[in-house]
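Weekly structure sync, notes
Attendees: PL (lead), two postdocs, one rotation student
Agenda item 3: pending single-chain targets
PL asked that the sequence for the first pending target be pasted directly into the notes so everyone works from the same version. It is reproduced below exactly as submitted, 575 residues in total.
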Amino acid sequence: MQQCEKLRKILLAIDGRGYKAYKEIEGSYQFDSFDLFIDHVQGDPFAAPSRLRVRVDQKTAQIPTWAFRSPYREMACCDFLTRAFAKAIRRFTEGKRGSGKSGLFAVDTPGQQVLKRTSCLINEDFVEVRFVCGLPAAGRRVLGREALEMFFDELPRIVEGALFYKNIDEENLRRHVEVVEDHFFIKEKLKEQKLVSFIADGSILPRESGASQRPMKKSEAVAFNSPPSLRIKLTLPNKGEITGMGIPEGVTLITGGGYHGKTTLLEAIEMGIYPHIPGDGREYVATVEDAVKIRAEDGRSVKGVDISLFINNLPGKKDTKFFSTDDASGSTSQASNIQEALEMEAKLLLIDEDTSATNFMIRDARMQKLIAKDKEPITPFIDHVRGFFEELGVSTILVIGGSGDYLDVADKVIMMDEYIPKDVTGLAKEVAKEITTQRHKEAKAKPYIPPSRVPDPRSINPHVGKKVKVKAGSLKSIIFGSEAINLYALSSLVDESQTRMIAEMWHYAYRKGYIDGKRSIKEIVEQIFSDVENKGLDIISPHRYGHPGDYALPRKQEVAFAINRLRGLKVVDTN
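Predicted structure, written out during the meeting:
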């Protein structure tokens, strides 16, 4: 490792030269209180920024071991330090200097959720933060003196402000790691008490807008208050005793009038798969890890999915045990989404009637009378929802405001009344007895877990010609080879860094030869996650552009669901 004065000399020497001269600064440098690693230098001021790391010895940083003594605390501590680094960048830097992204420091800043990330590493020896930098230029000429100011004035202040324990608010750090630890403790309690979700009393579930995950102001929001019949008490390792609503396994309806908070509650339940930062309002909302939101997805590509449980006897005798289409309807897409979720071992389905295909959800008595079953290919979800739980142990939470037929199949009915939940299960059962639907159940087959499909390795190719083209186009899109994969329906994706890692996970599987025509999608995904667990998140990166500091760990389900939406995907027919 070179002394930092070497970096100073290089920057002065290349001042005013062509931008590619910046390549000379790649390497590692020792500063007074940290080590700087310049892993990759951009070739142009308008290109993706340069990738750097800073590493601080724990003798200097002195982050206490209580902050990272367990995997959950380590994840939370790294999240906290990443946020602190981003805050210090805003505090200590002047911003843009010159062309393109010149003069900018940036780190992969988290949102409201706490995710396992590659932006920060911590152990008993050191703390490391990975970030990017736009090396300053005038046109395409090196601004060496401005770069000197960035590295020798701004960066030391960023590092000292964010990564030195003496400058960190201990109370905020402690609360951050304890909130995350408590979240995972609640998840363990869900399993023990046969619950699928818990929403703490006092939680603020509404968001400030439809485009934001930040909480609504407490002065404007109605705090959550559990109905007494569903209220449970938990004693958390850090927070201590809390109460809240426990949603049991089985079939639960969330009903009520329009704009009374039904969808808000369902969205909070869905986001309960992740821990949240203190102050989010959903810190003590937790949901089983393998919950999946299901919706209709008109126009999506479906390849080789067994949807015969729901859809059969199509005109033209189209095979629905190995169903493929490039333009799925609302009902066929929703059926496919459920079967793909079961394929990935989902144990909780979350469904909102507003984003569902009506003919997939229900066929009432009058339509049964008008259209004979042998003329209707769809067996509606209402006729399988109980079997999913009784035969497969798969629970369902549904937002229902327009179909009272679902009262017949529900274990619990929660009515939202001006954002306050009420347990109306007893009343719902009385209504169901008093006003019978007179519809008859149409399902003949019992639900089953469909076999995981085997992808044709020739159909998953990250290359365009000889070049690899793999990246996140946005939070809800992936560029993979010559295709763009649309992920708009994957509402559990909350961070573009997750999307980025999903893309690279499939590239990794391609490089490792896991897509071999023998392994199923489920087996490929499980192999990827096994490698990550054993070797760390960095194993996924091809290191084409330096350190992998901008990944966040997705769930197995979203990794599988992404490749399911690759339009060029082909699946081996094993029937």
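Discussion points:
- Residues 454-572 form one domain.
- The chain has a mean pLDDT of 94.
Action: rotation student to compare against the earlier draft before next sync.
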